[in-house]
Recover the amino acids of this structure.
């Protein structure tokens, strides 16, 4: 079965370190997204991509970057981790062109910045 | 800016009861609305997707309705079971513009079904 996987599932890092969260999907979807989920804020969009070499900023993109070198992967990098970036991060994907398609989520990556 | 609100934030019901979860959104120019389920420590699972031209969608004991003009959607769960306990989120996709493939989420309703 096609799926979307995130790694690591749990990570503790120190303030100021660079951290990369991996996201890999096997659906061959064009659209990929990164969200963070925090109590009181719900899910907020960080970055998204509509295809290879395409990346766009979302609502809360400061301090984060992504790159899309192939269809399957959209890694999320925290350039210099801050305590405010302690959160649960979800990667998601959907088919391209038809915006009515269902979006599929990964299981999440729990990140703690100390 | 699109805002999505879900009321109540938490709901506790006895097993077997029928229940309704509410979702409202401020911008009626949407492509679709999606209902998700999230179990503790897990990702989101899509339950129902309603296109803007549709009024409702059904899957098993779940029925979702959409009234675009009033900016409202409801998720009806029939004969609730303890296994239905989870957080339910709704999300809307905007009709046009650079954000047309993005979703705006509500904060969810945490449902507890008591045996």
């Amino acid at each position: 079965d096609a799926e979307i996987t995130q790694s690591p599932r749990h990570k503790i890092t120190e303030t100021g370190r660079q951290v990369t969260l991996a996201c890999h999907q096997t659906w061959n979807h064009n659209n990929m997204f990164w969200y963070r989920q925090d109590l009181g804020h719900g899910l907020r969009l960080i970055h998204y991509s509509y295809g290879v070499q395409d990346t766009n900023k979302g609502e809360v993109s400061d301090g984060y970057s992504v790159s899309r070198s192939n269809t399957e992967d959209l890694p999320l990098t925290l350039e210099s981790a801050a305590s405010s970036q302690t959160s649960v991060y979800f990667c998601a994907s959907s088919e391209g062109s038809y915006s009515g398609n269902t979006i599929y989520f990964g299981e999440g990556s729990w990140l703690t910045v100390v | 800016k699109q805002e999505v609100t879900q009321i109540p934030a938490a709901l506790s019901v006895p097993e077997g009861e029928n229940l309704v979860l509410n979702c409202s959104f401020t911008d009626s120019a949407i492509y679709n609305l999606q209902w998700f389920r999230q179990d503790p420590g897990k990702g989101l699972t899509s339950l129902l997707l309603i296109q803007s031209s549709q009024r409702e969608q059904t899957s098993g004991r779940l029925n979702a309705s959409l009234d675009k003009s009033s900016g409202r959607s409801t998720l009806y769960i029939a004969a609730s079971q303890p296994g239905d306990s989870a957080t339910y989120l709704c999300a809307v996709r905007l009709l046009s513009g650079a954000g047309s493939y993005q979703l705006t989420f509500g904060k969810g309703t945490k449902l507890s079904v008591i045996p």
The mean pLDDT of chain A is 92. The CA atoms of residues 28 and 90 of chain A lie 18 Å apart. The first strand of chain A starts at residue 4 and ends at 7. The radius of gyration of chain A is 13 Å.
